[in-house]
Design brief:
Elements lengths: L8 H23 L8 H7 L6 H12 L5 H33 L1 E4 L2 E4 H7 L6 H16 L2 H19 L4 H9 L3 H12 L1
Antiparallel strand pairs: 1-2
Helix pairs in contact: 2-4, 3-4, 4-7, 5-6
């Protein structure tokens, strides 16, 4: 028997609003430079009881009997799936984000954080300088690509597990309630 508390869809939604607000504020603070270290994993830890397999099952059950409210509960269920994935990956994502934030590059003798170099590209008046800094920041950023790929693959595996739908295209079709094959055929016919 699990000690996990399962919330009604309404109570889940109330807690979810607080969770999403805290995560978005953390993201904003890091992006605008108010914070130099991302602590998304700590927020995810604080709300760990919000996202559980039991909660996901309860939302799935509620969705089946919701009538007019089925779309709202479906979205809550999909968000719960995302929360479970976030809980699984938050530490790794924070670690990667914090390494990225700490990465420094040197441009024209000046050392600066990689994120600053990316922002500086938009304001450099000289094309040759933009080209040089663009190359420097792109090479530094590309060094993180293997870790990004690993996280994307882990996220994909979790999405397949949590949704019960292994194929990403099928998951997308289920979420959008449309056949992408039929859409492709219709677009092709219209272009012809």
């Amino acid at each position: 028997m699990s000690s996990t508390q399962v919330l009604s869809p309404t109570h889940f939604e109330e807690q979810l609003e607080r969770y999403l607000y805290e995560r978005s504020e953390e993201w904003r603070a890091v992006r605008v430079g108010e914070k130099e270290v991302s602590e998304q994993a700590e927020i995810v830890r604080r709300y760990a009881d919000l996202f559980s397999r039991e909660q996901l099952d309860a939302l799935r059950d509620a969705e089946g009997t919701a009538g007019d409210d089925a779309e709202r509960i479906y979205r809550l269920r999909k968000t719960c799936e995302g929360g479970l994935a976030a809980a699984e990956l938050a530490e790794r994502e924070d670690e990667l984000e914090n390494r990225f934030l700490a990465k420094r590059v040197t441009f024209q003798g000046e050392e600066m954080p990689l994120r600053n170099a990316q922002a500086k590209l938009a304001v450099l008046p000289n094309y040759a300088d933009r080209e040089e800094l663009g190359r420097i920041q792109a090479e530094a950023s590309a060094g993180f690509n293997p870790d990004r790929l690993e996280l994307m693959q882990a996220s994909e595996e979790l999405a397949a597990d949590l949704s019960g739908i292994a194929d990403a295209i099928e998951r997308n079709e289920e979420e959008k309630a449309i056949s992408l094959y039929e859409l492709s055929q219709a677009l092709h016919a219209a272009s012809v």
